[in-house]
Design brief:
Residues 143-258 form the SF3 helicase domain. This protein has 3 domains: 2-63, no CATH class; 70-151; 175-257, no CATH class. It is flat and about 65 Å long. The relative contact order is 0.07. Helices cover 50% and strands 2% of the residues. Helix 5 (103-123) packs antiparallel against helix 6. The chain is an all-alpha fold and 258 residues long. A two-stranded parallel sheet has the order 1-2.
Length: 258
């Protein structure tokens, strides 16, 4: 299909018409003329891309199911129902005094918050006619409970979301080394530090792909908020948002590019 579309872009029409120079030439002509009569071609390209994406996603689910992340499973009705039941249970007032004595419950609150965040992202694109008030109310309850636990000092054993270290100073004074050392201390406190391998994967801010990530417990983006513009800045924002997933973020390069 891709080769056929590519050929069509450079194929002239057999019959004489106002669209006779070939799709590519006619599209450029429409752009230069203020997009007059160009809507046909924009619709054509939009449909072609949508079809290619659907075919790619279908083949991916059949050929490479292991590459599917947790976000591809969240629209299943059973999973959404289980999440609602978990949120109702954790927000029960009878558990208010149990969180201090049960670290497992704290972990469940944190996991419920992560999965709920992904569900709310998927629900955000649903039409206005669908009532999602139940999910929104439960999610707000989990967010409030998570914040209350953190204010009391009852936090999850592992943080599965990004946090920022703001260290200011002149270049060359060791800001990156200080941030690196702080992460080492955090790993030592959790008992995750293993002397055999480097526990921190440092991701260059300007890089697009994560092919060098090898399951390290910490993903470190140094100088992530240096003022940039264009594609580099967009890729950094996308990388930070991808870290919100509770699944190990090591997708193939094609997935990162999309």
């Amino acid at each position: 299909l891709y080769m056929g579309v590519s050929s069509a872009l450079n194929t002239n029409a057999r019959l004489s018409s106002k669209f006779s120079q070939g799709l590519a030439a006619d599209l450029m002509s429409g752009l230069s003329n203020g997009c007059k009569d160009g809507s046909y071609f924009f619709r054509f390209f939009s449909n072609v891309l949508s079809t290619l994406i659907k075919i790619f996603d279908y083949l991916k689910t059949k050929l490479f199911p292991e590459h599917l992340g947790i976000e591809n499973l969240l629209m299943d009705k059973d999973i959404c129902q289980l999440w609602l039941q978990e949120a109702l249970y954790l927000c029960d007032s009878s558990l208010e005094g149990v969180f201090d004595a049960s670290p497992v419950l704290v972990e469940r609150v944190h996991s419920c918050y992560i999965v709920g965040s992904l569900i709310m992202v998927r629900l955000a694109i649903i039409g206005r006619g669908v009532n999602i008030s139940v999910f929104r109310d439960r999610y707000n309850g989990i967010c409030k409970l998570k914040q209350e636990l953190e204010d009391r000092g009852v936090c999850s054993t592992f943080r599965r979301e990004p946090f920022v270290m703001q260290i200011t100073g002149e270049p060359g004074i060791g800001k990156s080394q200080m941030a690196y050392r702080n992460m080492i201390h955090l790993l030592q406190a959790t008992g995750l530090l293993n002397g055999d391998t480097n526990p921190i994967y440092t991701h260059p801010p300007g890089a697009k792909y994560w092919e060098n990530c090898n399951g390290e417990p910490v993903l470190f983006m140094d100088d992530a908020f240096v003022a940039r513009s264009g594609e580099t800045f967009d890729s950094e924002v996308a990388a930070l948002m991808a870290l919100k997933s509770s699944a190990l973020f090591t997708p193939p390069m094609a997935e990162c590019d999309r």
